[in-house]
Amino acid sequence: MRIALAQINPTIGDFTHNTEKIMAATEKAIGLSCDLIVFSELVISGYPPRDLLEKKDFIEANLVHLQNMAKSIKRIGVICGFVDKNPNEKGNPLYNSAVLFDEGKILYQVHKRLLPTYDVFDERRYFEPGKECSSFFYKDCQIGLTICEDIWNDKDFFSRQLYPVDPVESMVDEGVNLLINISASPYHVGKREFKWDMFGEIAKKYKVPLLYVNQVGGNDSVLFDGISIAFDSKGRVAARARDFEEDIVIFDTDREKGDLHPISETDTESILNALIMGTRDYVRKCGFSRALIGLSGGIDSALTAYIAVQALGKENVVVIFMPSQYTLKENFEDTKGLVSNLGIKLFNVPIKGIFKNFLQDLSPLFNDVETEVTGQNIQARIRGIILMALSNKFGYLLLSTGNKSELAVGYCTLYGDMSGGLAVISDVPKTIMYLIARLINKEKDLIPERIIQKPPSAELKPDQLDQDDLPSYEVLDGILEAYVEDNKAVEEIIELGFEPSIVRDIISRVDRNEYKRHQAPPGLTVTTKSFGYGRRYPLAQRYTPI
Fold first, then answer.
1. Which numeric CATH code is attached to 2-258?
2. Does position 91 have pLDDT exceeding 80, yes or no?
3. pLDDT category, 56, cuts 50, 70, 90?
4. Is the peptide bond before 545 cis (omega within 30 degrees of 0)?
């Protein structure tokens, strides 16, 4: 049997658009003489639909589009994910389901059994877990069909199983000779190798090919890398789709071979491609076409501008340079160089006079705050007001430029540099920013070398440097990874070799700045734990790490 693994980029709730993509991919698969085409989890609605699942008309629309496709698609079998109703009087009202239809008939249906509730997942909020794990026979194959998390509970791979059942093991006991898993598995750096190891071990253990079809695209903060993949019965990669773009690959069950398409070669390249895809999808799926960025002459805004250009095209990116009396001459020059290299439009809006008027008008309330934190924040907020005014006037989506290291310790200003509709690099540590910049400049110096080399500075007072108030970013990022991503305790982090006083200071900053991050724009997730929907800490609390 020739099977097409089709990863498409659905838009949540745009049923017509999503089904048109499904139909187009199906026609392509028919042209390639395929017997079966497989799509991703909840592909008809897009994943994750979240509280749209509480709207009855949303559920009905998804069912109508499924029925229409089942009636109209001929000459090929189709497996796809959708939302089904739970007819029972008890339990949650919906199922996360998958269906096989062919020649107008529904031949098989399965409900997802293992419903994740960690990180960005909250499926028990909406869905009832399925009760059965049965395989089905289709065109000489006994197929075991699972949905995403259903395959993530192998007792020989995980030291701790999260669920009491393993749907894959149950299906294999029925004598399946093909495993298919449809997924909407979010991206983070390093995850793809983990998945490949797991899938390969399962295929090798049960001696059957395993096909994995994943969603691709960005939906809000959550990114999906695609890389739909097939393993042969010996656990070897036999077919693989591209990362971060729509693709179709063919797997032949008789030969246990298929197409191998290229993917990002390094973690740094993977992160960059994820950010470009996520920015493009967020801007366009939210109904915008152009983006606005405030440039400072530093690496964060430079990298954000590059990503925006790659995502939207240089004609759709506008940048603003807002110098003050503290802006160095080099930053004027570097900004001009960056803009010239990227081919984008630059506007200069100096803030020196506006800042002076602010201080003068506020002088009855307080004096001598020009270089204090209050004065520094006023400058940042002036820039935020200018950027938001341009965004309002011209309908551009403002992209904020703060990185994860700054956001973690509160080295940012509410209603100032945190203003924006999307925080493109808010899950990228500062040290990774430099690696990405070097990758961008590998072929040609698009980002001026001095931007990469210069010491980071907010330039809100004379001779200011980030390291006046923070440890080196190598130290800071090491502590943040241990505390935020690995959830290590204070003493565990100190045991890694970090100075105790610095560890306690950084952790204190992270905890007390939760309120800032709660008001930040959504950011694109690329690490194992980003600030946002997948990290839920209370704002009003008094817990202090020991």
1. 3.60.110.10
2. yes
3. very high
4. no
Closest CA to 12 of 53, 47, 50: 47
DSSP 329-349: HHHHHHHHHHHHHHT-EEEE-
- 459 is a catalytic site residue: no
Locate 120 and state its tokens: 């960005």
For residue 221, give both structure tokens: 């903060």
| Mean pLDDT along residues 489-503 | 97
| Strands 105-111 and 94-102, bridge-based pairing | antiparallel
CA–CA gap between residue 257 and residue 260 (Å, rounded): 9
Q: How do 397-400 and 291-295 pair as beta strands?
A: parallel
102: left (phi over 0), alpha (psi -120 to 50) or beta: beta
> Rounded distance, CA 482 to CA 176, Å?
42
Q: Give me the catalytic one of 41, 128, 149, 481.
A: 41
User: Helix %, strand %, coil % for the chain, to 5?
Assistant: 40, 20, 40
Tokens of 265: 């070669």
The DSSP code sequence of 389-420 is HHHHHHTPEEEE---HHHHHHT-S-TTTTT-S
Q: What is the residue extent of each domain of the chain?
A: 2-258, 270-467
Please confirm, yes or no, whether 112 is among the known catalytic residues: yes
The active-site residue out of 34, 80, 133, 148 is 148
From the list 21, 112, 430, 488, the catalytic residue is 112
Using alpha carbons, select from 355, 388, 389 the residue that is nearest to residue 374: 355
Top mean-pLDDT range of 179-183, 459-463, 531-535: 179-183
Q: Helices 430-440 and 473-480, interaxial angle, to 10°? A: 120
Q: Which fold does the domain 270-467 belong to in CATH?
A: Rossmann fold (3.40.50)
Output the pTM of the full model: 0.97
Please confirm, yes or no, whether 131 is among the known catalytic residues: no
The single-letter code of the amino acid at 445 is D
Structure tokens belonging to residue 365 = 């309330």
